[in-house]
Each structure stands twice: as C-alpha cells, then as structure tokens.
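> tool_call: predict_assembly(chains=two)
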Amino acid sequence: MSQTRTVIVGVQVPDGTRCDIAIVGETIEAVTPTAKGPLPTEGPEATTTIDGTGLVALPGLVDLHTHLREPGGEDAETVLSGSRAAAAGGYTAVHAMANTFPVQDTAGVVEQVLRLGEAAGYVDVRPVGAVSVALGGERLAELAAMARSAAKVRVFSDDGMPVADPVLMRRALEYVKTFDGVVAQHAQEPRLTEGAMMHEGIVSASLGLTGWPAVAEESIIARDVLLAEHVRSRLHVCHVSTRGSVEILRWAKNRGIDVTAEVTPHHLALTDESVRGYDPRFKVNPPLRSPDDVTAVREALADGTIDVVATDHAPHPPEAKDCEWAQAAFGMTGLETALAVVNELMVQSGAMTWEDVARVMSYRPAVIGRVENHGRPIAAGEPANLTLFDPARRWTVQPDGLETASPNTPWAGRELTGKVLWTWLRGKPTVQEGKVIP
Amino acid sequence: MIQLRHLLATADLDRASAVEVLDTAATMAATQARQIKKLPPLRGRTVVNLFFEDSTRTRISFETAAKRLSADVINFSPKGSSVSKGESLKDTVLTLGAMGTDAIVVRHAASGAPHRIAHSGWTNAAVVNAGDGTHEHPTQALLDAYTIRHHLAGGTGDLAGLSVVIVGDVLHSRVARSNVRLLETLGANVTLVAPPTLLPVGVETWPCAVSYDLDQAIDQIKPDALMMLRVQHERMSAAGGGYFPSPAEYQREYGLDVPRLGRLADAAIVLHPGPMNRGLEITSAAADGVRSVIVEQVANGVAVRMAVLYLALTGKEER
C-alpha cells in the first residue's frame, strides 16, 4: 500500500524552535529544524506540504473532563457531535464523563461509549467510570469490571455529584489502586450548597441568589487529600475554582501526596461579575468565582500546582438556558474555545510557554488518565496525534458555527484569539484548514 | 418628566428620578381623596399582573393602581413556574406579548426573573418588578420611602439625614435589598439589624451599617424610622437546624416589644411591609400603636404604583 507523506514546513514546535514535521501513515517520521536541510523524500511518492509559518504545532490535546451526553442526553450532544467539537478544538482524546443515562457504571455502558467513539472516529473517547452505582453515592460501582473491559477505564468519577460520604471516598481511593486508577472528585460539600446557584460573595448578596461558598469546595479537597495520603492512593481534583483550594493543593503536593488537579478555561477567564445580567449561560458548577480566585488559579496553573486545563464541556439544549436563572441547568461548552482562551490568558500574557501549554493540555492529562499513545512529544517515531494552531487568528464565536450540538457557550458574540487549523488523529486529518473533515 | 423603561431594581433610580417618582405619587395620592378616583391617562393600555407567587396584597395594589389610571388589567397567576410542571417563562411571556401587552407586572420566586423578561428579547412591554425571589421589591421600597418622607420630611424632597433601622431576615428579604439602595440614594442613613445567620455574606459592601444588637441600635442610633421585616417560620427548619434556635429567642433578641417601643424617639415611626407575624417580629402594641404607619403604607402603595405605571407607560409612543 502506498502511503502519503504530509510535511508541515516552518512550524513552531513547543520548545520554541521552527521545524519541519513529516507525517507518514500513523507516525511522525521526522522532525528537523527548518533550514537544516530537506526532509527525507524517499519512500512514498505523494507528498502534501502545509505552510506552517506563524503556526504552532502541539501534541494532540487530551481532555480529562468532557460531557458527551450519549447515551441518554442526545438532545444536547452525541458522541459524534462532541467528538467533532473536540477535534475542532485540537483534541485527539477526551474522557467522557459518567453521568449519562444509563450511567456509565457498568462494563456494558462504558464499552458502548467506547464503541460510539470508535464509530465516530474523530478522537479517542476514553469513558470515565462512575465511582458509585447510578452516581448514588452509596455503594461502589463495579470498578474492576470497567477497568478490565475493552474501555480500560482508569478515571473514575461521580462528576456532577460529589462523593460526599468520606467512607465511600476512602474505599474508592483504596480500591482503584488494584488497576492504577484515579478517583476524580467533584469537590462540593452538599449540605453547604443546598439550593446554591452562584458563588457566595458580594455579587450573590446583591442579586439575591443562593450562594455556593468557596469553603464547600475547599473542605472536601482538604478531606480528600488527607484520605489519599492515608491510603496512599491517587486523587484527581476536578475543576478547581478557589484560592483556598489552590493553597490546600500546594500544601498537599509539598507533602508528597499523590494529587493532581484541573482548572477549566471558564474559571481561568470569567468572574461572578458575569452573573449580574442573570444570563444562565454563565450558570456553572462550580460557579464562576471572585477576581481574586481567578488570579489564584491562573498563578497555580502557571506554577504547576494545578496540573491541567480540562474543559468540563457541558452541553445543554437551548431550553435549558433560555429561562430564569433558578430554572436553568448548570454548565457551559468549552471544547472548541479552550485553546484560544488559554492562548489569550496564559500565553499572550507571557505567563506560560507553548511547552507549558503542551504540558497542561496534553502530556499531563494523558499521564493522569493513563491514556496510551497520547500526550507524547512531537518527535520521530511518535504517534501522529497533532494539532496546528494559529495563535494570531481572531474569530467571533457564533453558537451556530460551532460543531457542538448545543448553544451554551459563554463566549457567544465575543472575539477570541487563536484558532485550530489542523488536527491529526494517528496521521489521519480530522480538521483540515479550519474545517472538521465531514 | 422621567421615563421609566422598566422598574427592575431600585438601583435603576438616581436621586432625582427617585424624588420625581415620589412627587408623582404625591400627585396621584391627592387625586385619591376625591369621590371619583379614576383618571384617564392609561386608557386603552393593557397591564398584565403576572404573579407566579401568591401575593394577594401586592397584586390587588397593582390592580387598583392600574384601574385608577383607566388601564385594562389582566390578572394571570400560572401555577408552578418550572418547565417540567408547565409552560416555560419564555412561552408565557411570548403569549402575553402576542396579545398586545403594554406592561407586565411580575412577581416570581426566582431572583432575576423580571430582569430576564425585560432583557431576553421576549417582549417589548415595560416590566415592573413586583418582587423577585430574594432579590428586589422596588415598589415596596418606594412606598416605604414615600411613607417616611410624608411623616418625617414634610412630604417633599429627599430623606437626607434621616436614620432608618431595618430589622430581621435581611438574607432572604427583597424588601431589605430594595430599601437599602433606595434609602441610601435618597440620603438616609441605613442600619441593618439581624443575627449573623440572617445577613448575606458580602453585606459589608452594602451602603449601610450593620449591627447584631437591636437594643444598641435603638439606643445609639435613635432611629427616625424602624422597619421590621417578616420572619418566616420555615427559616427554622432549614439546613443546619435553621437560622435561629426558636421563635421565643428571636422575639427576645429582635422583636419589637413594648419596652423597645417605649425607648424610641417621640417622632419615630414603625413600618412593616406585611404580612406581619404578630408576636414574633412585632407585638400588637407596636403594630397597632400610635407610631405604626403600617396601614398607611398600604394606601401609599396604590399611589406609588400609579406613579410607576404612569411613568413607565406614558410617552412610550415617542420612543
């Protein structure tokens, strides 16, 4: 079979140098500094050349926190539409959260989601397994069965619901050690957040909306890092949103506790001031926090206290947001805007390099999720999971123009800087010249 | 004359426009002493009272106000406000719009619901907030300010220099939020008195003082007006065992009883937005005593709501 070769010429790789990258089949054939001589031309006859001038090549992004909604929520998203959105955002692997219907709490359901991902073919869909049966928070789901299944589940989470019971959390942390799993906790003390609709602070007091206090997140993280230390297991903290959480994580890491953490693009970018117009597109859990919290999570991402950026892409159908605040669903989409937001806030500001971006959006999430063949450096012999990003391209976000099936982006009508132009999954383009392959 | 596009929160009003609303209300009140109370300015206009929450007194007050101005009034009280239970808020508002509604007076359990109706492109009608969740109740604050001005400021101008103490469940009170902002705009000095459990996090940024001690507030501030907020019995069964230990303890610490009533200045007045829990936040001696202006507040409510509807709906054609 004659293979084609794709050569990206003069593109910036994460370490800052300009290189030519050759892709043959499913593999990166060669990476050579530009102007250091021609790339190999022997072998396959057909060569496609892409001008990489001004573009940045990143290893295919890996999302630790995606809601694909299928099965059960196909009015909001399907594995296919969500996979296309992921590819459009530069992702080559996503972790599909367990709060589907039926819940991803058995080998059968996680394998179904795996198969849907394979059929879609845009990204590797890695199902997350529920910690507890039906996310009920009462007894462990069959974690080993999911781990041993074809889906090879390694990340377990009741996301959307916290594992509130400290004994259940302890058991889960202990049990996942069998297969090198990790428990990803949605840190929310339920009693402190009854009826909570936004960050508790100056804005909630003014708007008369029930507050979701920072302490409800921080107290669970504090408990969980101590549990992880006690049972010597691996904890991942979802969507960290407060300064106090960052300080607890910093303390835990200094102490040698095996904890990792993620932050979402929206918690890096937006504050509770966005809620003042009562527009439910800004209703999310955990809620948008104070400006001081936003500063803290940005610093923590830059200094490594927070390991990764994860989208918490949470699609909802229009009617779930076109209503009064109290009635609206929590969550916002993020797959297609995440890299642009990180570019604007962290790279253009000088807080992070492209190597840092590769670390927080590809290398580290792949390590945490134990995702094979993703999050690998851009080097000869590595799998050709890549994305090409134009960090200067400005575009206005229009919900209708996105691949996700739901319109609940917080960026609607706003201009973002940076656009994914190409994505390859194992050498096969999923995005070509800014368009998702049909 | 000012034009109110909507009235959603008292922060929408600066001092001059707040005073003008009160002056307009005074003009309206003067006409209400006549034998024939009906005025013509809103003839042919339609006002819908859209009440998702039961509130007979506020609805009747708005209905009376609109009818005295010759508007056609439609009362609509959908049962339940959730998508699962019935029609969505959006569809309800679209339906009313299709019938040619000029103003929607809305009471809703969800904070911000009037704001959504006004700003989501669902309707062109003027929206008047008649109480939304624990957010605001601006016409209540206007009628309170009107009542205070009538008794303590000669019925004209603003409330500069007057001290007002508001006592009770500030956390859940839309009346308190609206009053703090409006009274401050009008130049009054406001102090909130409540147990810390019934004060919102962030209250320290409000334009008012805060105290946990009613006796100290009465003796040190010597308030010109004392406003007692309703305390709901269900606040005792909330998470954590409730916001205060018992009605008896609340009454002892924060109730307006006879000794506290006796320590008020001679000219001081007592307000309550109603409905009252006699024996809890207010004793009958205070509610029915000479300082009480509680029944007057109800009468003034009609005049204030006439003024708001008048300012929101007249001159609208030119826009």
